[in-house]
What we know:
Mean pLDDT: 81
Number of strands: 0
Structural class: mainly alpha
Shape: globular
Helix content: over 70%
Order of helices and strands: HHHHHHHHHHHH
Radius of gyration: 18 Å
Strand content: under 5%
Largest sheet: none
Amino acid sequence: MVVTLSLLAALTFGAGVAFEARAAVQEPQELAGRPGLLLRLAHRPLWIAGLTANVSGFALQTAALHRGSLVVVQPLLTTSLLFTLLILAGWERSPLTRPQWTAIMLVVVGLAVFLAVSSPGESSQGTADAQAWLLCTISVVTIVAVASSAGLRSHGTSRAALLAVAAGTLDAYMATLAKAFSHSLDHGIWGVFRTWTPYAVIVAGIASLLFISTAYQAGRPTVALPIITVLDPIVAVVIGITFYGEHVRFGGVRSPAIVLAVMGMIAGLVMLTRDDRVASDVVREEASQPQ
Length: 291
């Protein structure tokens, strides 16, 4: 059930990414990192469609995290990029190239080997004390603040890369909050609003949305997409292991197999997101825009 919910969430997120990214790249650069960017995007039907899909994806992700662990759910969510590519290929009647199929196979096989060999625990405690939350939040805020501050002062590739680091880190933190929120639902529909989790999810969700939109808006999809796509599950797995007490099995022949699987999955994701054709499909960047 955890795997099914995670893949359904990935499918929904994959459909939403294309819509949001296409809308964001059309906005002026001076709105980068400002709430006004979201206000302008809110008037674009394409962006609203993407947001609706992402809200649905979040609901499925929350259900998956309620039953499963971050070390299982977040790596599976990386397949959202594959779904985006497959959906667009069918929509535009444009067959995938051999390099794209190779990249897809690297991701799928790498993910399958990682889950099979590391045998990650499907469940976790889902709770943490106040000190752990404070340390986790300070770490995330520090990374996001430093990366975004440097990114907003930069241009071109550096701008896209630094903003993507902030976006990917914040997106992983959102998954941590989503897991806490999912367990708060045990208090009931009304009881959950007497906890802090829904309000933290809303604030972090708006911030995550702003930074992801800003990273897309930087106009370097072949830089921003791979960083966000790869950094999100890596940070989420690290948080899951250190924060929620989740585990994966290492030792013996498992270690090199896990390393190779992760490297293969990352290589496939980077190949896809740095493919000019994929990037133009996902973000609809102007062909004449310099890279």
